[in-house]
Amino acid sequence: MLRIIEKCGAVHNLSNPGNALAPYLFEIYIRPNMRKLLAPILILSAGLASCVDRLDVRGGIKKGGKSDRNKSYSNLLAAGVNSMTDSKKTETATFANGCFWCTEAIFEELNGVLSATSGYSGGHSENPTYKEVCTGQTGHAECLQIVYDPSVISYDELLEVFWETHDPTTLNRQGADVGTQYRSAIFYHNEEQKQKAEKYKTALDRSGAFDKPIVTEIVPFKKFYPAEDYHQQYFENNENTNPYCRLVIRPKLDKFRKVFREKLKANN
């Protein structure tokens, strides 16, 4: 029931049609403040509508309530992040630097990174599956789509983490993972990203930071396909069940945390 408290402390029930004061109280107290009272509801409604629209565009929801593989954790996360960050500027970086189980665990710990989604890019097949990408016939590389707040972390800093956390001198290989799907690549989204990536690569080669030349390809971004649900936040969900997490990802993550401890989110 809607109640209005008068200065004298009396309470009038406006839902009671027999209350003669109701019309006057409505005009005095409610009508002048109608915009303020309705504002939160209108904002919430707009936000929900925007979220649904994003999911529909991304293939996450189809008519009739049916969904396909793209109605995934990654799509829901991306829609949620975009809805929450519409009021501030965000940018996107796309990197391929080995198995995305490892790279996702690293980049999502950086302060300023809003989401790190595992997926595929750089190939010719549409909507590839993990099994298809593993054949090496799709042309896609395992990669990360990173949405970040440039006021907190810069593209230069993301590039620094990219170069430091994999071997950019091994062609189509990262450790025991072999194949074109494990190639080192930077998919730039604009001219500024391209110039920074090329400048960084040239500087590293000239400095002799690596014993062999860097083979990282720097190519324009075309399309990103989110990986299946079970690949998202893989380390977090499988640390205690998959030996790969303990033997491969954990040591790499521990080393990363020591080197970049000042760039990590507060809870890491």
Write structural notes for this entry.
With 268 residues, this protein is α+β, with helices and mostly antiparallel strands. The chain has two domains: 3-49, no CATH class; 89-263, Peptide Methionine Sulfoxide Reductase, Chain A. The protein is built from nine helices and ten strands. It has helices spanning 22-30, 34-57, 73-84, 100-107, 130-134, 155-164, 191-207, 234-238, 243-259; strands spanning 3-5, 11-13, 91-97, 113-121, 141-148, 173-174, 177-178, 184-188, 217-220, 224-226. The chain has a six-stranded mixed sheet with strand order 9-8-3-5-4-10. A two-stranded antiparallel ribbon has the order 1-2. A two-stranded antiparallel sheet has the order 6-7. The longest helix is centred in the first third of the chain and has 24 residues, at 34-57. It is globular and about 35 Å long. The chain starts with a strand and ends in a 9-residue tail after the last helix.
Any chance you could write out the topology, listing elements then pairs?
Elements lengths: L2 E3 L5 E3 L8 H9 L3 H24 L15 H12 L6 E7 L2 H8 L5 E9 L8 H5 L6 E8 L6 H10 L8 E2 L2 E2 L5 E5 L2 H17 L9 E4 L3 E3 L7 H5 L4 H17 L9
Parallel strand pairs: 8-9
Antiparallel strand pairs: 1-2, 3-5, 3-8, 4-5, 4-10, 6-7
Helix pairs in contact: 2-3, 4-9
List keywords for this structure.
alpha+beta, Peptide Methionine Sulfoxide Reductase, Chain A, globular, 268 residues, single chain
The outline comes out as globular
Rg to the nearest angstrom?
Answer: 25 Å
Would you list the SSEs in sequence order as H and E? EEHHHEHEHEHEEEHEEHH
- Uncertain segments of ≥5 residues (pLDDT<50)? 1-30, 37-74
Helix proportion: 25-40%
Measured by DSSP, the beta-strand proportion falls in 15-25%
Biggest sheet features: 6 strands, mixed
Tally of contiguous helical segments: 9
Architecture of the largest domain in CATH?
Answer: 2-Layer Sandwich
Give me the secondary-structure category: alpha+beta
| Number of β-strand runs | 10
In CATH terms, what is the fold-level topology of the largest domain?
Peptide Methionine Sulfoxide Reductase, Chain A
Sequence of strands across the biggest β-sheet: 9-8-3-5-4-10
Compute the number of structural domains: 2
CATH class call of the largest domain? Alpha Beta
- Average pLDDT confidence is 79
Looking at CATH, the homologous superfamily of the largest domain is Peptide methionine sulphoxide reductase MsrA
Q: Cα distance, first to last residue?
A: 47 Å
